[in-house]
Amino acid sequence: MATFICENCNFMYKNFSGRPSDYNREGERNVTLILPSEEMANMLTENGFNVKVRPPRDEYDTPLFTLALKVAFSQNPEESYKNPKIYIVHPGEEGVLLTAETVGSLDYARILNADVKIRGWNWSRSGRSGVAAYLDTAYVTLEPDPLFDKYGY
Known about the structure:
Elements: E1 3-15, E2 30-34, H1 38-46, E3 52-54, E4 64-70, E5 85-89, E6 96-98, E7 111-125, E8 128-142, H2 146-151
Parallel strand pairs: 5-8
Antiparallel strand pairs: 1-2, 1-7, 2-4, 3-4, 5-6, 7-8
């Protein structure tokens, strides 16, 4: 299945760490991607992805288009090339590649922007089928922190 680039996105319901919750089994890493436009939502829907639409809350609001993404890291070191490439980007600096051990730091990060590559996977089970969305690559820009800028860490 093809991959899709989605720029100027953000995340909600972040569970990069795979922590257990009422909606998540332990070890299952997933996030909800906020899509930037109805056009992107329509394109993904046309390609079989299960895009959700939240209606506007009032007359001044716009619909919110979202897509659930799986964030899958291989347990087998020989298959590490399959792992998602997730970078934290600081303007003017080289990006920092996150690992399975460090990606959970994004769960509580204040994300300003995310440029994401989505990989689809056709699945079929018990007479049902669909397209699962996997996070393939992400460049995540965090909100500026004046203390980080001052001290550099």
